[in-house]
Amino acid sequence: MKVIVNGDPREVPEDATVASVVGDVTSATTGIAVALNDEVVRRAEWTATPLREADRLEVLTAVQGG
Description:
The protein is mainly beta and 66 residues long. The chain contains one helix and five strands, in the order E-E-H-E-E-E.
């Protein structure tokens, strides 16, 4: 199925979850925020939140620097 991840179309398996797509997008383990269809998804809910056709997922990673 197709979903939009950070503004780009992406093909994901039918059983994809927020957690599985976040793992594909970044290897970071901390400093990550996720919004699904403009609603923040708490980290504790990532594995239990399935994705559906045409969902919009934004994965934001905090970056440190000066």
